[in-house]
Amino acid sequence: MSLIDKLNKNNKDPEEIGKAVLSIVFGTFIGCLTYALSFRFHIDIFGWNLAFVFAPLFAGYAETYLSIKLMDETTGAISAYLLFFVTVIHGFILANPTLGVNGITVGAIIVILQAAFPTLINYFFLVVVIGSVSYLFGFFKQWTDKLYYTIVPIFYKLIGREFVPKRAALTVDNFATNLEETDINDLGVLFMTTTHPWQVNVKEYIGVFEGSVIIPNENRFFEIKTKNEENLLLIRFQEAKDQALKQLAKEIKDHGGNGVLDLEIEYNIVGELIGDSFHIVAKGTGVLLE
Questions:
Q1: Is the Cβ–Cβ distance between 77 and 27 less than 8 Å?
Q2: Where in the chain is the domain with CATH 3.30.110.70?
Q3: How far is it, in rounded angstroms, from Cα 159 to Cα 157?
Q4: What percent of the chain stands above pLDDT 70?
Q5: CATH homologous superfamily for 184-289?
Q6: How much is the pTM?
């Protein structure tokens, strides 16, 4: 719970406010002390003082430690934000206004931002950056495949030869060999697609759960050409769906449930560098039935 939520919950109790302020002041003091000592004793790497990294971190840790001891809750590491601005204003403007942009500078700024705004920076790198890279690799793969199948046939035609696209047949030995049959009727959980069952009584709603299975495709050139390949693909999808349901049932049973409402099965394609894999997800609301 953050400081604002804590104050709202307690209707701005003066004692709680005092404890929160004390925690923030303590964290800020530790951060400033760390910053001063790092500059005093020249704790640096390649001329870059580690105070820019450790001062906000130590401030946030110290504040969090004291606030948990005093209130059993965190105050949101506000001192880390304060130390972030202190280090930026002093280190980049007052102490060294001619600091150039280099790899160490950029890296340190990223670390400082991560310490001051962990959720935002983590989301940016984990979701935005990694998602963009994954998308670009997938787009690059599709673009190169399209270019290959456009230019190469023309070249073969010019030299008087027939172009035969690469293709690999799907067999039980090269496609999703890690899947196995699962009897979903023996899982101890009742699966229902409805949200309002009328034949059974719901004693408790537990929460939303999901189970997922990925069918990796290690061959980028496969195509479904024969009836046997089509049947194999359907069988693998059925096995993957049953395994996803098995995972879903286990999650719900671990939380004390024995039924699923609003069951949904999703089939997605996940782009990779080698080939497109299949992602099967089973999700629903876990309930305890009478």
A1: yes
A2: 184-289
A3: 5
A4: 70
A5: Hypothetical protein apc22750. Chain B (3.30.110.70)
A6: 0.43
